[in-house]
Amino acid sequence: MSNDETRKKRNQRAADTAARLEAAAPLFGAGKEVSSENTVALLEAVIRAGDIVNIEGNNQKQADFLAESLNKVDRSKIHDLHMVQSAVPLASHLDLFENGIAKKLDFAFGGPQAGRVAKFISEGKLQLGAIHTYLELFGRYFLDLTPRVSLICAFKADRNGNLYTGFNTEDTPTIVEATKFRQGIVVAQVNEIVDELPRVDIPGDWVDAVIQSPKPFFVEPLFTRDPGLITDNQILLAMLCLKGIYAEYGVTSMNHGIGFLTSAIELLLPTYGEELGLKGKVCTHMILNPHPTMIPAIETDWVDTIHCFGGELGMEEYVASRPDVFFIGPDGTLRSNRAFAQTAGHYALDMFIGGTLQIDKYGNSSTATASRVAGFGGAPNMGCDAKGRRHSTGAWLKCGQELPSLDQQLGTMPRGKRLVVQGVETFGEGRQPVFVDKLDAWKLAENANLDLPPVMIYGDDLTHIVTEEGIAYLNRCPDLDSRMAAIRAVAGYTDIGLQAKPEETKRLREANIVKTPDDLGVDPSRATRAMLAAKSVKDLVTWSNGLYNPPSRFRNW
After folding, report:
1. Kind and range of the H or E run holding 106
2. Which secondary-structure segment (H or E) carries 88?
C-alpha cells in the first residue's frame, strides 16, 4: 500500500465529514447559522443511513425541534439509525422507530415513554442495545458508541457557533466533545442567536451548525414534587430514614433520587431533623438537582454545598441568589454538568437513597419491567459500592464495619461501604406489589434478547430497605438466608412478606438487623403533614422570598 493510500485510509472519517458538510454548505447563512426552514435539508445532508446519532435527550432539556425535524427526513435515504442518548422522554424520540428512521437504541432513562419503549421492544420495532447508567453510556461515547452526528440544544449561540448552555448544561459538553474530536458533526438548536453571549460554555469550533428554533426547547421539571401530594405513609418512611439511617450513620454526603419519599425527607429536615439534633451532622454536601423541596433546608442553613446534574425549571433566580451553596458561573447562572455530578455521585458520596418498581427476594431491584422500561439513569452509578474509592468518612467506615467479615472483606483487610438505600411502600401504583419472587426484568431480557436481566441495583450493593414496616439493615446480615429473611420482614402483606416467620423476625430484631418503627422510637401517629416545613408549592415560594417561580402546572393559587 502506497503512502498516499495509507494516509487516505487513516483519514476516512475526516474526509467523509468534509464531504457531508460540503453537501450542506449551500444551506448556511452568516457564519454557522442555518435557518430553521432548512433544518430537514441540513439533516439529510449530514446524516447517512446506519449512522450512530445522538439527539440531546436529557433528563430535562430536549433538542425537540431537531428530533421533530429528523422525523421528517426522507426515510429512503436515512434509515436504520442507531440512536445513543441519555433519555428518550419525548414522543418524537420513539416516532423515529415507528417511522422506520431509527432501528437500534442505547439509552439510560425512559421517563414518560417507558411503556412505549417496552411495547416497541415486544413488537420488534426497536432493537435494544442496552439500558445503561449515565456514566456507562458517556464512557461508550468515547469508545464504541461515538456519535457520527449529534443534535444538541443550548439557550443561546452567536453566529460563530459559540454556545451558552446556561442553567441546564446537563449532557451537552460530554456529547459535543465525544462527537467533535472523532471527526463527527455537531448541530445545535438554540432559543436565540445573539451578538454576545453571557459566557461561552461550548466553543464555536466544536460546533458545525446553529439553528434558531421556532420556539424555545422543552424543559421538563423532572424533580419538582408538590408538597401537597406527599402522603402520611411517605412521611412515616421519611421519619424512619432520618432516625434509623441518617442519624444512625451520620451521613453528610448523599444523593436523593426522584420521588415523594425523598421530597418528604427534605421537608422534614427543618422540623423532625431539627428535633433529632441532626443539623450540621447530616445532609451537608449533596449531589442533587435544585429540588424546590430543598428550599426550606437551604434557608435554615442545613446545606453547605450542592452540585447539580441539571437545572430545575423555575429555580433559576433562587439558585442564582445562593452562590455559596450552588456552583454559579461568572455570569451569575448555575453551571450544571451531568458527567461531573455522576462522577461525584459514584465516588464521593456516602449514601444514595431512592426508590424502585420491584425488589426480588434476594434484594435485586429494577425499574425495567416487561410493560414499562423506565431505565436507570444514574441510580446504578450512585447505588453501588464504588470499588475504586480510597478516601474514608465516618458513615462509609461504619457501614463497612458492620459487614460480616466473611462476606465482603479480604482476609483481615478492613473496608468501608457505600450506603445504598431503597425506600418503598410495599405496594406501588395500582396496588402492584413492590416485593416479588422474580423480577419482571427476566421477561424483558427475553423479549429484547438481552444476555442479562436489566437490574438497576444488585442485591449485594443494597444495604438498607425502608418500608412502612421498618428498616432491613442488609449490610448486617451474615448470610443470604438472613438477608432474605430481613427482606421478608419488611415486605408487608405482599406474597414475599407473608412468608415471614414471626420467630425469625423476632431474632432479626434482637440482632438489630430489622428495626420496626417501635424499635426506632418513631411514633406513626406523628407521621402527618403537620410535620412538613412546607405543605404546598405556594409555601415553597414564600420560603424562597418569592424567588422560586414554579411552572404553571404547579400553581393552584
Report:
1. strand 102-109
2. none
Closest CA to 433 of 515, 492, 503, 517: 492
What contacts 154, CB < 8 A, 6 or more positions away? Answer: 163, 164, 165, 166, 172, 188, 189, 190, 191, 201, 202
DSSP notation for 322-345: -TTTS-B-TTSSB---HHHHHHHH
β-strands 464-467, 419-423 pairing: parallel
Interatomic CA distance for residues 61 and 238, integer angstroms: 30
Give pTM, 2 decimals. Answer: 0.94
E strand intervals along 126-167: 127-131, 149-157, 163-164
> What does the CA dihedral 337, 339, 340, 341 come to, rounded to 10 degrees?
80
The pLDDT tens digits along the chain (557 residues) read: 566 665 666 789 999 999 999 999 999 999 999 999 999 999 999 999 999 999 998 889 999 999 999 999 999 999 999 999 999 999 999 999 999 999 999 999 888 898 899 899 989 999 999 999 999 999 999 999 999 999 999 999 999 999 999 999 999 999 999 999 999 999 999 999 999 999 999 999 999 999 999 999 999 998 999 999 999 999 999 999 999 999 999 999 999 998 999 999 999 999 999 999 999 999 999 999 999 999 999 999 999 999 999 999 999 999 999 999 999 999 999 999 999 999 999 999 999 999 999 999 999 999 987 778 888 889 999 999 999 999 999 999 999 999 886 444 467 788 899 999 999 999 988 889 999 999 999 998 888 888 999 999 999 999 999 999 999 999 999 999 999 999 999 999 999 999 999 999 999 999 999 999 999 999 999 999 999 999 999 999 999 999 999 999 999 88
Check: CB of residue 292 under 8 Å from CB of residue 315.
yes
Instruction: Evaluate whether 278 touches 246 at the Cβ level (below 8 Å).
Output: yes
Pull the grid cell for residue 328.
454559579
